[in-house]
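Budget justification, computational time. The allocation requested in the original proposal was used primarily to generate structure tokens for proteins on the priority list. As evidence of use, we reproduce two of the resulting records. The first is shown immediately below.
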Amino acid sequence: MPPLPPEFAQQFVEGGWRRIERVYGARNDLVRKWIAMAGGERELKRLRREYMAGRRKG
């Protein structure tokens, strides 16, 4: 299994699942493993919501 890319969480927060697909082109099972390694889906989605809310304000 390829290691978790260091910028994976940031890429997910800024662009969601579609960006992950575009940037890494990895299979879904690998992406799900990386999500778990990066803090879990709930945590990444929470960070993404906060990021998106901040973009709307500023």
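The second record produced under the same allocation is shown here.
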Amino acid sequence: MASETRDARDGEGVKFIHEDDGSITAKDIETGVASFGDTKAEALRMLAEAIELHEGGGEPIDDEEAFLEEIGVDPDEVDDAGDPPWE
């Protein structure tokens, strides 16, 4: 069973969830955005990237098919609704 620790004041901060598989999930309390890593430091780095993307950071995807191929997904396996093949 996962356990939680919290470093929060007034609805801000990060909640750490120690998962059964040994990974650590870091969840931003204000936005609800979460990410994970093998350590707290890694989980925080991944969370920072996730929050940046959540807030509109990052680069736009110009060529969806090329992007899917780059991450190892066959574009022909994605249905018209845009749902990934693993759902």
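A brief technical remark on that second record: Helices lie at 40-54, 64-70.
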